[in-house]
Protein 1
Amino acid sequence: MRVLIIGCGAREHALAWKINQSPKVTELFVAPGNAGTAPIAHNLDIKATDIHGLLKAAQQYKIDFTVVGPETPLEAGIVDLFTRYRLRVFGPTKAAAKLETSKVFAKKLMYQYRIPTAAWSAFFNPQEATEYVKRQEFPLVVKADGLAAGKGVIVVNNEEEADEAISQMMEKKAFGEAGSRVVVEKCLTGKEVSLLAFSDGSTVLPLAPACDYKRALDGNQGPNTGGMGAYSPPGFFDDKLIEQVRKVVLEATVRGMAMGGTPYKGILYAGLMLTDGGPRVLEFNVRFGDPETQVILPRMKSDLMPLLEAVVDGKLNEQVVSWSDEACVGVTLASGGYPGSYQTGFPISGLDKMKDGALVFHAGTKVRDNGEVVTDGGRVLTVVDNGKTMAEARSKVYSHVAEIGFTGCYYRKDIAAEGAL
Ligand code: AMP
Ligand code: GLY
């Protein structure tokens, strides 16, 4: 089988690494890929958002199966387009992707199917939103309805901050059209966890859970990022809780999507807060998480390819997935300045010094003509390893990280520290 993976992050490198191990796969392509995918796949120089360019490439290279990494091509309708041309593709349709691309859509679905989430209201105009917040208790969370690259969520502690967030989103259009509608919701407290599941439209098959670290600096300080590290499994998210979330969140969502005429196929990712009152949904994503995927896939003992195919073919009920008991930790190495502005083009040293067991998933990297690997983005690498305990995995990862260097490199030192308890 000839497989195409779309995207260029460490998530897509991890997918390529795992899919490449499948005996079903004869040739692997990644568009656009990075320096990490180049040795194991053909990198195609096509942007993930250029869905017509990707269609042409899929036809030209006779691709049998396509896996979509990021949300932007899903929002652009890549699954609808490929399906129209009878190409097999893993991911939800544009209509089903609204679970992530519209928070108002997701909230309405949760309300309709009694899926536990924070109390909320949606607004189409800023005056109504500012009137509403006057009557609420703080803190609150103001969220842009549409995609905002992880930046469209602001926690506000008083009326002034709320008015500013509402004005930024709805009047000053800080996130473009994504902020023309906003959701205002109650701020929840507790431990955060990500539970991803395969869904074929009716059957749900959860993956191992994981925790990610969104803030840039140790102790969850600094601005939000795309993710500075992750670990799996979180000890506090036990089988009983997972079973509860499977029933009241994942299965209820998939049922609701089918009832609404937009059956959900692909990865359903529930971002959850485990509150004193039980698990609550913070958000849905319609794709593999980044960096969660980098710590989930190394724990997956099963071949990933038959699972992806079963999702597309509606045969997930015939599948099981087995997991290693080992703990897995991933640390993101980022360019100085990220998530703000940063420089690129710095040589990366130490990649040849990695010990057995180390997995280095590339994100913003590229190979120069002279073979040198240089930085090419904000998040540069996710360094991953396993261990019998979380503490062992963690200490192995940080010993690998210490070998790697590039100008301006920074990373968090506290990834999986809590999971080791
Ligand atoms: P979202 O894109 O909706 O997941 O929001 C991004 C991040 O904001 C989440 O991962 C949480 O850390 C935080 N967040 C979102 N909604 C809430 C909420 N209702 N209460 C507390 N934190 C939240
Ligand atoms: N880890 C958060 C995300 O993938 O959106």
Note: The radius of gyration is 21 Å.
Protein 2
Amino acid sequence: MQSRETTLRELCSRHEQDHVFTFWDRLTPDQRDMLLSDLERVRFEEMPALLRIVAAGTEHPHYDRIEPPVCVRRPVDTRGDERTALGESLLSRSAVAALLVAGGQGTRLGFDGPKGAFRISPVRQKPLFQLFAEQILATDRRYGGRTRWYIMTSEANDAETRAFFEQHRRFGLPLDQISFFKQGSMPAFSLDGRMILESPHRLALSPDGHGGSLLAMATTGVLADMAGRGIEHVGYFQVDNPLVRCLDPFFIGLHAERGSEMSSKTVPKASDDEKVGVFAICDGVLRVLEYSDLPNELAKARQPDGSRRFDAGSIAVHILARTFVERLTADPAAFRLPWHRAVKKVSSVDLRTGQMVQPNAPNAVKLEAFVFDALPLAKNPVILETNRREEFSPVKNATGVDSVETSQRALSDRAARWLESAGVRVPRTAAGEYSGRYEISPLRAMEAAHLREGPPLPREVRGDVYVDAT
Ligand code: UTP
């Protein structure tokens, strides 16, 4: 049998990547092992296709016909709706799992640690992970199920993420209710198609995008685990949206009633040029078009009543049928979603000197798969239009648009609205904005109606207000 080294050298040579062995003679046995392990994670069988994408520059897909999709609008009050009842019964049977993708690098936020450890809630400063954990606990208390939570991490943040959960005793969730699994990684390429070394014995690897979740579910045994537990549907959400309703009975029921393989939530776009993907029917197939792929005249187009024609922004909340992911990944070697190409700055080693080089301009191509590219492959997809102020305010940046400040404000304003709807007087400034900060534990309410149940509320509040579970 060939040694690991020989096999990998041959693969590298076949794909013109021999430079990764430049420093081999000076590496220690441990360092050699690390380099070989990195190379074992590279999908060499895909290399010719990857190199074509690296070389091609960004390609914008062409469609002859692009039309707006049909969306179901969420009723203001979903209680008493038969779809809500169906979702609740699936939750009570523990037939729905929560899937959080938290493998990203969070470079824009610039927080030192897994993004989910970032303390976001406006009064108690709860980390993002805690807000989701409390929703899962609250869902189980309300419907009587035991919802399994799968958390996707990546090589870079897996250990820290697990340690963070342990340190906080999993925010009250039992040990056996959470499973972590790691996504795959992709090498970064130089603009001329060579894998970048981040040190003499390490490839510059980064997570393969949130779309990597589908393949990772197959290869790490998550799908088999789900099947063994009778889980039929998977509620997918991302770590950066503290307003997300991760297990929404109405959405789950709608998805199940329609026999949908993949359902998605949408909110109307905030402006023509908001940087979100939009749902569109492209040459007869429903998909999410990246904002850079929606032609400008369509982004600005209006309906006869003046409303925006392409208004269905994607908020990265989906439900996937387990059998859909199984079908897609039945042959894991044959499954892949399209790669999206981004040119970024990646520090690297100078192959002549072995010195680290910090680029001052983007020097590398990173490739990522996006989960919404599974939508065109799904049967009976459904899109549910919901309310942005209730369900979407992502933390992408430290300041400015989609930042810590805007997201905290959205959480606080939502809590204030819920309090008002329960008859509590909430003070406002002369300009009509809420004054003070408000926070409601998910264990007390996951929507306004829940607040009207349970212990009585004060008639009036002011200052920083936290409404606890009891
Ligand atoms: P983003 O697209 O915002 O990327 O991820 P990011 O890596 O977190 O942040 P930036 O771009 O470096 O600032 C959206 C969601 O997808 C997850 C993230 O953790 C987040 O929940 N994600 C992204 C993954 O799980 N894996 C990836 O490879 C990329």
Note: The two ends are 65 Å apart (CA to CA).
